[in-house]
Amino acid sequence: MRVPVTVLTGFLGAGKTTLLNRLLRTPDFAGAAVLVNEFGEIGIDHLLVERLTEEVALLEGGCLCCMVRGDLVRALEDLAARIAAGTPVRRVVIETTGLADPAPILQTLMTDRRVLRGFALDGVATLVDAVAGAATLDAQSEAMAQVAVADWLVLTKTDIAAPGVAAALTARLRALNPGAPLFEAASVPAAALLDAANISAGGRAVAVAAQPAPQAGRHDRSIESFTLTFDAPLPWQGVSAWLGMLALTRGESLLRVKGLLNIAGEDSPVVVHGVQHVFHPPAMLAAWPQGHDRKSRLVFVLRNLPREVVEQGLSAFIAATDEKTIMEVR
């Protein structure tokens, strides 16, 4: 069985190490191996992670989003060897530098064959500072990407934020990533930050898609979130070809794609999930959620990619597939 990996991200000063220390004290994160990344030649953050486990490693030499992805793979390979030799590791937590765009990290975890033999991406928890978060989102594209790819959003420093500031930031975060549950760091249960895949497949994707996604605020115009809904069953050949083309040609703009699809000829729904250039293998659920209307829904979080381009492209692929099917029947 593969070991689940949780990615803990958030901009500089968001409180990642503080939350990590708290999580490591809980039974849910017992037996966790921790990989910590610090930008620069000399790491500091790993000294602040309480050594409740011996499996704490520092990835040196730069930001996880670029220079040390090879180090990440090597660290996980080394950890896999130790697990095979009997080291009891139940989970891996990767704490990224605050400067990292997590998408390349996720691509490594989702596509590298050496990693996939022993590990499986569980989810991304993004921390946002309630005091400085709005200004950071305005100024830093990496912070926007961190929020957009999150499976869970965790708001920190709410106790010292000015009245109304945390509420306004919460509304903005929900607009940027309507599918991610949002918690306050002081009260979030450790168990709530586990099993993102099961939450998405089992119901959260359905709940997210059940209503149109809100639009991003005036400072977030380069990022747009929306939902496409389809009444009739979709042809898998057309949808999969279109998703592949979109990831190949405009992957840098696909911050997140999630969908629950009614595929022609199938009795059960299909879940799709992608980050930039990489899509998880589609997963078929055992059955439709009780009371679901069986409409297909695709939720997008895009950067610098107009909605109409996505809609027109998908419509064209579906139409082409339908025409081919008609011709083959004839």
TrEMBL record:
Signal peptide: none annotated. Residues 223-318 form the CobW C-terminal domain. One of its GO terms (molecular function) is ATP binding. Pfam families: cobW (PF02492), CobW_C (PF07683). Keywords: ATP-binding, Chaperone, Hydrolase, Nucleotide-binding. InterPro entries: CobW-likC_sf, CobW-like_C, CobW/HypB/UreG_nucleotide-bd, P-loop_NTPase, Zinc-reg_GTPase_activator. It catalyses: GTP + H2O = GDP + phosphate + H(+). It comes from the Bacteria. Zinc chaperone that directly transfers zinc cofactor to target proteins, thereby activating them. Zinc is transferred from the CXCC motif in the GTPase domain to the zinc binding site in target proteins in a process requiring GTP hydrolysis. Belongs to the SIMIBI class G3E GTPase family. ZNG1 subfamily. This is ATP-binding protein. It comes from Roseomonas fluvialis.
